[in-house]
Amino acid sequence: MNVELYERVWMWAASLLIAAFLGTILAMTAFHAITPPSHFETVDPSNLAANPEFGSPGVRPGPDGGVVVTVVAEMFDFSPNPIEVPAGRPVTFRLTSADVIHGFEVVGTNANAMAIPGYVSQFTVTFPNSGEYLIACNEYCGLLHHNMVAKLIVKKEAR
């Protein structure tokens, strides 16, 4: 009789844990609108040179008063390099890869994304202070992965 009771207790405990996990997912979806992304943007990685945006990566003014930085990652280089952006304004990074999966980490900040061939990754960050940052590939991409770095220069705007 004790074995059956012991098994029932663990079955109820496991059922309660599963219900709690599912309840958390449903609550986040219903009350906080946290859902998996439903929109993604693609680009042809074999023909990036003909793409109007990724054919000439660089920094350009954004629609919200910030800047948009288009970056192409490929073995073993980030283009453009260096990247110069203004301090105190939103910077939207748009990334893709021409060959394999690469990482894009602005060291010392929370700016971190993956550059995946065929897909466009996008994130926005504001750098409050001027300075120089290292950009590192944090996804192993081949034998010279450790040399895949770039420089981000954040400049104070002249007023």
Q: Please estimate the helix content.
A: 10-25%
**What share of residues are in beta strands?**
25-35%
CATH architecture of the largest domain: Sandwich
Radius of gyration: 22 Å
What is the CATH topology assignment of the largest domain?
A: Immunoglobulin-like
Could you tell me the mean pLDDT? 90
Give the N-to-C terminal Cα separation. Answer: 81 Å
Described by strand count, sense and barrel closure, the largest sheet is: 5 strands, mixed
Q: What's the CATH class of the largest domain, please?
A: Mainly Beta
Number of domains: 2
Low-confidence segments, given as residue ranges, are none
- The gross shape turns out to be elongated
Alpha plus pi helix count: 1
Q: How many strand segments?
A: 10
Instruction: Give the class from helix and strand content and strand pairing.
Output: alpha+beta
Give me the strand/helix succession: HEEEEEEEEEE
CATH superfamily of the largest domain: Cupredoxins -  blue copper proteins
Give your account of this protein's structure.
The model has no long low-confidence stretch (mean pLDDT 90). With 159 residues, the chain is α+β, with helices and mostly antiparallel strands. The chain contains 1 helix and 10 strands. The strands form 2 sheets. Strands 1, 2, 3, 5 and 8 form a 5-stranded mixed beta sheet that branches. A 5-stranded mixed beta sheet has the order 4-10-9-6-7, with no helix packed on it. It starts with a helix and ends with a strand. The protein has 2 domains: 1-36; 45-155, Immunoglobulin-like (Sandwich).
